[in-house]
Amino acid sequence: MESSEARQPADECRGRGRTFYRHPVDIPLHFRRHEHHDHVGVVEDLGFGGIRFRADEPVEPGVTITVDFPSISGKQEVHARVVWCHGSDDDGWEVGAAFLEECDHFRTRMVEQLCQIELYRRAVAERDGRHLKVEEAAQEWVKLHAAAFPP
Fold first, then answer.
1. Among 60, 144, 130, which residue's Cα sits nearest to residue 96?
2. Whole-structure pTM value
3. What is the mean pLDDT of residues 6-26?
4. Domain extents for the chain?
5. Bridge partners for 29 per DSSP
6. Strand partners, 64
7. Partners of 96 in the beta sheet?
8. Which long-range contacts (CB under 8 A, 24 or more apart) does 147-151 make?
């Protein structure tokens, strides 16, 4: 039996028996296409293989986008290729994109960091009765734990 001390920090978020487990999240993102100006979206779910997010405008399948997450510590970007884009019920667009191979290290760090933020948010709600928005939890977690998070 595995002790809690022996577990890796993000074990509770990793999928068992799946190649790419999807983590439901609700955090802001910025993305750029070739035209070099930012568009804003909200991540709906995220995994090691890709991302699904909501956007205010459609993004053409096949386009490579650069994505960054303002809630994650450090200025890092990840590149992805848009696989699909569908209209959503809220007059916006749902976009699915696959991460490109060059992003393995950042992708792993990003997913683990987002898992830690979500675990922190749940712990604060249970322990303190505070119900933080994901962005608030991310800001608190970064102040408290980002320096100790492995590079």
1. 60
2. 0.63
3. 43
4. 1-151
5. 41
6. 81
7. 52, 84
8. 149/73, 149/109, 149/113, 149/116, 150/109, 151/109
The residue whose two tokens read 């675990």 is: 119
- Whether 107 contacts 63, CB under 8 Å: no
Tokens of 94: 């749902």
User: DSSP states of the chain as a string?
Assistant: ---GGGS-TTGGGS-SS-SSPPEEEEEEEEEE-TT---EEEEEEEE-SSEEEEEESS---TT-EEEEE-TTSSS--EEEEEEEEEEE-TTSSEEEEEEEPGGGHHHHHHHHHHHHHHHHHHHHHHHHH-----HHHHHHHHHHHHGGGS--
Neighbours of 77 (CB within 10 A): 14
**Can you tell me the distance from the alpha carbon of 110 to that of 34, in angstroms, rounded to the nearest whole number?**
23
How many CB atoms sit inside 10 A of residue 13's CB? 16
CB atoms within 10 A of CB 147: 8
Q: Is 1.10.220.30 the CATH classification of the domain at 1-151? A: no
- Tens-digit pLDDT profile for residues 33-47: 877 678 888 888 877
